[in-house]
Specification:
Largest sheet: 9 strands, mixed
Helix content: 25-40%
Bound molecules: pyridoxal-5'-phosphate, iron/sulfur cluster
Distance between the termini: 45 Å
Number of helices: 14
Strand order of the largest sheet: 1-2-3-4-5-6-7-8-9
Strand content: 15-25%
Number of strands: 12
Radius of gyration: 20 Å
Shape: globular
Length: 376
């Protein structure tokens, strides 16, 4: 990662010059995690907070974790500030106003036969081994896990999860997620992967991570070369706006790609972040320049405290329709609504009816799903 210090538009170069931080520290992912911005005072040293954000810091502490890596804080405050990034990570009193918001909109708890293994599809599971994140996204649909301490790479949870996966021969694809599963030592991650590789019916191991976006220094050559020994490994990352694709992120993505790991991106459609045609088009294009295939664009779930960030489905459909024909076909993600019975692609074909402001959709099993208060 030291090569970033030779690129004068990298975040590492600019931040270490401006904040007078030792470059070796700034480039260390553990230093970044140990110096996450968590308090109002720390945030004020980076951002010109408005009243809602300031009060958000004061009152919100117990609602959902606050934490921002110095990397992401510097980047989102750089050159007068990028609201698209700040909105994702700064708390706000707007989080208190959300009559529709739910604690567990996907009923994941009920669909976990053992703790932190969500089993909805016959052939694949989401295995939530992590609790920590490089940034705590205000729209996260797994906020609820925050209240429970000690879930991060919990030995017993992992052991039980592995036993369950080993016992279910229909599972061929394990999605390791959390929290952020790359926030552990190389050894801890390798030991998890190698345990999964000992289960002969598990063919694909994939990770969902936000580290390329908010903590690119985690993706060292040493780490990505370790992952390479366990192919097929797939990684989905989580860029929401084009400003997040920095030289630092590009190097992280190159390290992953050069290790032969296919990269996908899952973004969430968010108000003021990526809800315009040009923002979305430029994010999707830029991703493909870095060998990342836009995979899913999620409709923001009805998660508590996210009303101010949710975008109507009608708008989402228009945005996606307008991308078609204008940018490369492989740069267009599927627009998805995640529901307790699985992911439903949002397109005209699946929308059965609009009832008031509710959207009625047909799920993969032919059931009807009602997404409340989501049309306009
Ligand atoms: C999203 C998800 C998966 C993976 O779904 P794909 O459409 O294959 O990417 C698997 N299990 C659960 C519980 C999920 O939420
Ligand atoms: S990185 Fe992922 S798990 Fe963590 S807060 Fe953001 S969306 Fe949630």
């Amino acid at each position: 990662m030291e090569e970033l210090l030779k690129i004068n538009h990298s975040v590492a170069w600019q931040a270490t010059q401006k904040l007078h931080i030792d470059p070796d520290m700034f480039l260390s992912w553990t230093w970044q995690m140990n110096h996450q911005i968590r308090s109002l005072e720390q945030a004020e040293s980076f951002f010109g907070l408005n009243d809602q954000e300031r009060q958000g810091f004061i009152q919100n502490k117990d609602i959902f974790e606050i934490g921002i890596t110095p990397y992401y804080a510097f980047l989102s405050a750089r050159n007068g500030g990028h609201l698209a990034m700040q909105k994702q990570v700064l708390p706000s009193t707007k989080e208190f106003i959300d009559p529709d918001g739910l604690e567990d909109p996907l009923h994941e708890k009920n669909q976990s036969p053992v703790k932190e293994v969500v089993h909805i599809y016959p052939d694949r599971v989401a295995f939530c081994v992590a609790q920590l994140c490089p940034v705590y996204c205000r729209y996260c649909f797994r906020k609820r896990r925050d209240k429970e301490h000690g879930l991060h790479f919990h030995r017993h949870v992992i052991k039980q999860g592995l036993e369950y996966i080993a016992s279910q021969t229909s599972i061929s694809d394990v999605l390791i997620t959390g929290g952020d599963p790359f926030l552990a030592s190389d050894e801890a991650i390798e030991s998890l992967i190698s345990a999964l590789r000992d289960i002969s019916h598990v063919k694909i191991i994939r990770f969902g991570t936000r580290t390329p976006v908010a903590l690119p220094y985690r993706l060292t050559k040493k780490f990505t070369q370790m992952l390479k020994r366990y192919h097929p490994i797939w990684v989905n990352t989580h860029f929401n706006c084009q400003e997040e694709i920095t030289p630092d992120a590009a190097l992280a993505l190159a390290n992953l790609s050069d290790a032969g790991i296919p990269l996908g991106n899952q973004s969430v459609l968010l108000r003021g972040v990526n809800d315009s045609w040009d923002k979305l088009a430029s994010l999707c294009r830029q991703l493909t320049y870095h060998r990342v295939r836009p995979y899913y664009m999620f409709h923001a779930n009805l998660v508590q405290g996210t009303q101010h960030l949710r975008v109507p489905i009608k708008t989402g459909l228009e945005l996606i329709r307008n991308l078609r024909g204008k940018i490369s076909g492989f740069a267009i993600p599927s627009y998805i609504l995640d529901t307790p019975s699985g992911k439903i692609p949002l397109n005209e074909r699946n929308i059965l009816d609009i009832d008031g402001n509710d959207v009625l959709l047909e799920s993969n099993h032919g059931e009807i799903w009602r997404e409340k208060n989501a049309w306009i």
